[in-house]
Amino acid sequence: xxxxxxxxxxxxxxxxxxxxxxxxxxxxxxxxxxxxxxxxxxxxxxxxxxxxxxxxxxxxxxxxxxxxxxxxxxxxxxxxxxxxxxxxxxxxxxxxxxxxxxxxxxxxxxxxxxxxxxxxxxxxxxxxxxxxxxxxxxxxxxxxxxxxxxxxxxxxxxxxxxxxxxxxxxxxxxxxxxxxxxxxxxxxxxxxxxxxxxxxxxxxxxxxxxxxxxxxxxxxxxxxxxxxxxxxxxxxxxxxxxxxxxxxxxxxxxxxxxxxxxxxxxxxxxxxxxxxxxxxxxxxxxxxxxxxxxxxxxxxxxxxxxxxxxxxxxxxxxxxxxxxxxxxxxxxxxx
Length: 335
Hints:
The chain has helices spanning about 1-15, 25-45, 45-60, 60-70, 75-85, 95-105, 110-120, 140-155, 160-165, 180-195, 200-205, 210-220, 230-235, 245-255, 260-270, 275-290, 295-300, 310-320, and strands at about 125-130, 135-140.
């Protein structure tokens, strides 16, 4: 009976393999296919055969893959390693990026060479997300570099080796990688591993640039460094003359989550003359940081005349208090 079910699964899958927007009839067929897959997977007791079922299912459509992935990541170590390593060769960069992230979180020590290779050699290709059209062309190198940092934290005995591997990564001189900021990523990754302040010098220089784009870029890079405290130069950038710089800084300060930033973010959020983007980003950061000191202000902002502010304030309040106000956007997942 199980053999028949597996054959039916393969037949159904071959009938619905496609690209492009999903239609209701395709959705219904894939739901049936997935139901068969789940039954087969649950009934199978041999880890190796479970892995084969996942591998077979993975060859099919994006929509089906999105459902298979959580099941795959729950497989035992060796099977998961093999699955993720194979995924790093997928022609769609979306899945190579996903594989890099998952290897950083779940891969065993045996996966280190695969991550290093991905950080060194992956080349840009089309990124197609499940249920979407092409959303860009990129590589998995950015994600693989940060996955190596995660790997070093999970396996401290490998930290020195990983630090050397990241130092030896080729510089991103290839025009294909110009939008991926791989040299910045490399410095940020090394900083996370060594806490060597000298590595941040180029980013401080950008904050002092006369060019607003460079100042914004410098602020943005600090968000990738896993800082334990916000540098005074970054705090000062909340007073930058350019809105786009202040807007970026407001988000990055939230990611760093230094309590020293809370008064600056409260001031920006409260300023009715400030740019909408800056205010909303400041509100977002206050919620992300769960800054209780901002509660009274956020309640006032629920009635702000700018239509974008009340919804953001409601989300921030929910993150701080756990209570949803009437301005909370319906269907929004704030968790």
